[in-house]
Hints:
Layout: H1 5-17, H2 20-27, H3 31-45, E1 50-52, E2 57-59, H4 61-83, E3 93-99, H5 101-118, E4 122-128, E5 142-146, E6 154-158, E7 163-169, H6 171-176, E8 192-194, E9 204-208, E10 211-215, E11 221-223, H7 226-234, E12 240-243, H8 244-252, E13 257-259, E14 266-267, E15 270-275, H9 282-297
Parallel strand pairs: 3-4, 3-5, 8-11
Antiparallel strand pairs: 1-2, 5-15, 6-15, 7-12, 7-13, 7-14, 9-10
Amino acid sequence: MQIDQSSLSLFMAVARHRSFRRAADQIGCTPSAVSHGLRALEERLGIRLVNRTTRSVALTEAGQQLYGRIEPAFRDIADALDDLNSYRDRPVGHLRLNAAHLATAMVVLPLATRFLEQHPQATLEVVSDNALVDMVSEGFDAGVRFGEIVAQDMIAIPIGPRQRSAVVATPEFFARHFTPSVPEQLRELPCLRLRFASGRLYDWEFERGGVEFQVAVQGPLTLSDQGHILQAALSGAGVAYLFEAQVEQHIAEGRLVRVLEEWCPYYPGFHLYYPSRRQMPSTLRAFVDFVRGERAVAP
């Protein structure tokens, strides 16, 4: 049975993304063309590879088996083609990153701008998503998250400086409410709560004298994005737990007031992480080298 590689590439895109639309975006065609192409492949094989509903796309058992068998071969082909870039003076290729919203704003975009200036033949796509994703199955080359949540089987390098938390609210807010002197008093104030993509509410973290503890704050407003929490804090909606880098200019210009500074811990900061592979794509290798170089010259 003769099956052309383009049909298998189409199947791989659908299997990886579990979506005709996202597979079409990757290949550069319409979702309808993907659907017709996959159906034609199934007819030639005489086996259903994908179960389709109006809301989801899922691999059948046969589809799972086919994907598991040919995915390493397609990865080897991609690596072999990417190796050709080593013969160029500059890396050429597409780099796809997945990063938390905060990481995108604070470290990825500034680095991306400088990286693309140095490597004009490279292209970079950054998908912001606070949920942890399976990087390989979703087609990402690397991700950016806080170091403590990176999986053990990943290679991780620091990207950007250490971060420190900051508890802030507007001057007008503290004119209407008392100013807390210890973290436990935050339970008596309206606080802006953060809910993770997993559904878990974040308990604010503090440390003093080597003792770490958490405070489960309360408040009328819960958000899922720290950028939105900053906007709510600036509007006077409550006390916010953010990062120094997010609020330092607002504090300097008097829009926010910081409290409990001596209780606020430092964090290792964001890390660039990627799977351990026999061969690293040249554009990812260039980006990793760039990140390491940036850290070497950082003050």
